[in-house]
Design a protein that fits this description.
The chain has 10 helices and 8 strands. By secondary structure, it is α/β, with parallel strands linked by helices. A hairpin with a 2-residue loop joins strand 1 and strand 2 (48-54). The two termini are 33 Å apart.
Length: 289
């Protein structure tokens, strides 16, 4: 995961005025050019950098630069919100972020919760696009299921997750499923994977009709006898994915109502791993109506 070093963004974290200037420059906040009441020009004063002031003294209308933005729902200074966001992307816990920023755990928790909500909303929009589908002609996709346990060997409360990952790009989909039945797994995979893909699974019986159902080439690796099948295909990509997700998602989050959100968050982080900070800023951008 790539993040610019914190010193590169330090000016945006230093003061409210610098943070506002940064957010306006990268268009996370909208630049207001005229008064919504009288149409006169507006400006921001150095003494009040968070307010647009109408230049017509008879009107004197004022509007916050945060109107309609992510920051409008928070009472923290925007430079502190940006610093919390940076540390959240770097993988720090709420307790550690609180200690490093001097912001209370409650306030940090609220910011992190809102950041996650924004990310999940972005994931839902991304999933509506055709390019979110995995695979395609000659593209290998590995699929499998895995239990996400709430403790070592504690399968009683474990949640079953189905996943699929493109072998070359690492793009993936993962979703909690209620059981291992073909009637559950096949439709879910069909909604994720393009026709004509090469889909690799283990020998589990629920995958037997996968090739015909998806219009795909189905390669099977029989783990009882082999880790690489005769054609050279493996399930290493999906096994690596499970390992990475289980390292990233703490046991406390492996519960109904939370685990799926964390899976989607990890997918967003992976898909934007080369530009994590910029991707978050785009997610927080105010779009004019």
């Amino acid at each position: 995961m790539f993040l610019p070093v914190e010193s590169v963004l330090s000016s945006a974290f230093t003061s409210v005025a610098d943070a506002v200037a940064y957010l306006l420059r990268i268009r996370v906040l909208l630049t207001v050019v005229s008064c919504s009441r009288c149409g006169s020009s507006v400006q921001r004063y150095p003494s009040r950098p968070t307010v647009w002031h109408c230049n017509d003294h008879d009107c004197a209308h004022q509007v916050t630069v945060f109107a309609g933005s992510f920051f409008s729902r928070l009472h923290l200074p925007c430079n502190k919100v940006l610093r919390i966001a940076y540390k959240f992307l770097s993988g720090r816990s709420i307790s550690l972020i609180s200690a490093e920023t001097g912001v209370s755990r409650v306030s940090v928790g609220k910011v992190v919760r809102m950041l996650r909500e924004a990310i999940i909303t972005e994931v839902l929009y991304e999933d509506l696009r055709e390019e979110s589908l995995l695979g395609g002609a000659e593209i290998v996709v590995a699929a499998d299921e895995s239990l996400f346990e709430r403790g070592e060997g504690n399968e009683e409360d474990a949640l079953l997750v189905l996943g699929a990952v493109e072998e070359e790009s690492g793009r993936f989909r993962a979703s909690i499923v209620p059981n291992h039945l073909a009637s559950t797994l096949i439709p879910q995979l069909r909604s994720w994977i393009r026709r004509n893909s090469i889909v690799v699974t283990d020998q589990y019986s629920s995958y037997r009709s996968l090739g015909a159902s998806l219009g795909a080439v189905h390669q099977v690796v029989t783990h009882r006898y082999e880790w690489v099948n005769e054609e050279g295909f493996t399930t290493n990509a999906i096994e690596s994915l499970w390992s990475r997700l289980k390292r990233a998602i703490p046991i406390r989050d492996r519960i109904p109502g939370v685990l799926q959100l964390r899976l989607d968050e990890q997918r967003w982080r992976w898909n934007h791993r080369t530009e994590l900070w910029n991707a978050l800023m785009r997610t927080l951008t105010v779009h004019p109506h």
